[in-house]
Amino acid sequence: MHYVGFALQWLMKALAVVLAITVLNFLIVRLAPGDPAIVMAGEAGAADSQFLAQVRKDFGLDRPIYVQLATYVGKVLTLDLGRSYRTRRPVGDMLLERLPATLLLTGTAYIFALIVGALLGAIAAAKAHTFLDSVLTAVALVFYATPIFWVGLLLILVFSVQLGWLPPFGMHSLIPVKGTLWQMLDTLKHLVLPALTLGLFYVAVYVRLTRASMLDTASLEYVKTARAKGLPEWRVLTAHILRTALIPIITFAGMQAGNLVGGAIVVETVFAWPGIGRLAFDALFQRDYNILLGVFLISALMVVFFNMLTDLAVRVADPRVGSRT
Amino acid sequence: MKTSLSRSGSCLAVALALVGLVLFEAGHAAAQPTRGGTLNSTLWPEPPGIVIGIHLNAPTLLPSSKIFEGLLTYDFDLKPQPMLAETWQVSSDGLTYTFHLRHNVNWHDGKPFTSKDVVFSLTKFIPEVHPRSRPTFQRADVSAPDDYTVVLKLKEPYGPMIRSLDVISAPIVPAHIYEGTNYRDNPANRHPIGTGPFKFDEWKSGQYIHLVRNNDYWQKGKPYLDDIYYRFIPDSASRALALEQGEVQLATQNDIELVDVARLKKLPNLRVDTKGWEWGSPISWLEMNLRRAPFKDVRFRKAVMYALDRNFIRDSIFFGMAKVATGPIHSSSPFYTSDVPTYPYDPQKAKALLDEMGLKPDANGIRVKVSLLGLPYGELWDRLSQYIKQALGQVGIEVTLEPSDVAGWGNRIANWDVDMSTTYLTTLSDPALGVARTYISENQKKGVLFTNTSGYSNPEVDRLFAEAAKEPDQAKRKELYTKVQKILVDDVALAWLVELQWPTIYDARLKNVIHNGLGPNDNFADVYFEK
């Protein structure tokens, strides 16, 4: 009942937040200078008044902004995200085409980063102030500070150009591969470098976060008590330190999960990965408002959803959180 | 009265002889073309659609020009060559154009191509969707006396008509698919049906467009390639790498940063060709807002010209892949003249002109402050803006660079809200189509890009452009355009910088890539891999 109440309360809040975000996004996007019709004319290297008027009429851009907003919100409530100005295709279809690629990339990078990062962070904390700790911390710092596109290009140079082990870009081989298993292996081969590029950055974040969190927790009184009671060190580490230290990690992981949709623009660009981040990036420059708003909406839904999951997970990890509310 | 011009007849004979000669030469020079092979080309950005007319973006044209065809195409000298029209005549008064269409041409869905498709395309489809060609075909009364003849009747002669019939200006689309529909939302736009040597197969969003060989193509035995993949690779460095590695065999226009082209040029497995832009004839320029001071004073504009070292721009910013522009008409145009006032790099002369205007330097050496909205197309154009700032700074014109993205840039220029801006524009196959629009007074249309946004106005220029467009005689047209070039350059209507020579970079085994004035926008029926 406790969790059902929480879920209902959360749902109400979530709806209000998503609606507010939709309205806000709509207004913010329109603040950027530029007119989609002129952008399209610019891309075409040709324009006349009839062309511009036609584009504005077709997409309702000639109507007052509040009418456009009301129309948009009304459509979103019926799950219609409108059409792209450039391609004239339904935005929902375009997003669905791109979403799986992005989720595959960011999901892989995310799981990789979470597992490897938390593990290495725990090792660094357990071996704090030793040579191993210094090496792990330094390597993490390097990956944290290095621009993602540079890491990507470096990996391409080493693994594609020099060694020829992995393809430098794309999601599939150009010559179609037959058989489901081979197709999956082909995609996997293409996935390694972009997922590693994106993952390495987050590994670095998790290493630093886990290490810091565990060391903080290790200095707390109750841990000293556990040790004074004579508990074996591995038990102190797993049952006492790690559980508490997990809370900031869960919180960060939740925040990152919400960012899964739009968080890979750079990697998608370097590796020509056909994802949604790149779609949004291009839409921004082309002032293709509906695509942009569609991506924002999905991102907002993801953030809200994962925030709820995070809240729930934190409650499980630390029952005091729930009891306080 | 409709009579075939004897000149047109002899032109045709010469053209056919030239075609024969070219084919003969090509046959000898490149040995026997061989069938087969997959061409992988880069394409960036991903186009919004691939039906020419509905979309005119550069990345639309590359795949679309393999699917669709026009009545004519053009050689490097912009002379018309047969395509869907096998022969044609122009009446002596320049009012009637008669096209005899090829027989045995089928659409990709198997339906026969006839004059009905041409009439529909020129009278309905293009006037509705094609912003650039709309005015051209709105002048014509188009009819079809039979299935394989099309007649265009004009109320008054229109010089550029014969250069407006290529696949980009006048794509021929199937009437049986588009007639009676909303052209822009027709489902066939995502699965286009043309007459070209390649058929549309698949479009994987974010990944590639795939075209396959049209086995029923009207040029028997062609095309030579089995299929073409246009791969969307967003990052310029990745595109260069893909070429280097042989993952793709073709890149063109802005695909590769010019600094990388200089490097790729040296690789034995790649070739670089800067020809093939004769039809588009792109020129870059610095536009000044003539509605504002100090730009309205021609002495200031001349000072700007003298202050810019355009040889430096060509060599150091465009890495030699450009030619210094001398005026409004591209040097590959038959109407070009080099006999115009010149403005060699001479900062002293620039300073003298500014002094004469009364723009004296202050204690910091600054005479006047202006702003520049640079074309936001990446590093190369940013460097150009930086150079202009430095060069004008040296003569006392302090330039503030205004950052923007493409949308903001276009919006401000269209609404005349700038001091100076840089851009490039295709000046197209005929000055009446691609040059006049930038200078004639009646084309000052606020809110519309690629019109006369500088505010230049000169009744004599208006008259000469109007007269030249209506003049059927090519020699007389050239005289008129020569006059107009002299006036515009003397007036410095714009500060023309360089003619762009975009590199097409391709695998050394690939042959016939650039073989006419449409360059990479040719239909690729003749392209093959040497085995």
Features:
heterodimer; A: 325 residues; mainly alpha; B: 531 residues; alpha+beta; 21 strands; globular
Describe what you observe in this structure.
The complex is a heterodimer of chains A (325) and B (531). Helix content of chain A is 78%, strand content 0%. With 325 residues, chain A is mainly alpha-helical. In chain A, helix 1 runs antiparallel to helix 13. Chain B is α+β, with helices and mostly antiparallel strands and 531 residues long. Chain B has 16 helices and 21 strands. In chain B, the strands form six sheets. A six-stranded mixed beta sheet of chain B has the order 14-18-13-17-15-16. A four-stranded mixed beta sheet of chain B has the order 1-10-9-8, covered by helices on one side. In chain B, a hairpin with a 5-residue loop joins strand 4 and strand 5. The radius of gyration of chain B is 24 Å and the shape is globular. At the A-B interface, helix 2, helix 3, helix 5, helix 7 and helix 11 of A face helix 6 and helix 12 of B.
